[in-house]
Amino acid sequence: VSSAKLARFAARAGLSGTEFLAGIPGTFGGALAMNAGAWGKNTWSLVQSIETLNQRGQRYHRQITDYEINYRSVKGPKNEWFVAATLQLTSSSVEESFAKIKSLLKKRNETQPIGLPSCGSVFRNPQGDYAARLIEQAGWKGKGKGGVYVSEKHANFIINHTATTAADIESLIEQIRTSVKQKYGIHLIPEVFMVGEFIEKQT
Question: What single DSSP character describes residue 199?
Answer without folding.
Answer: S
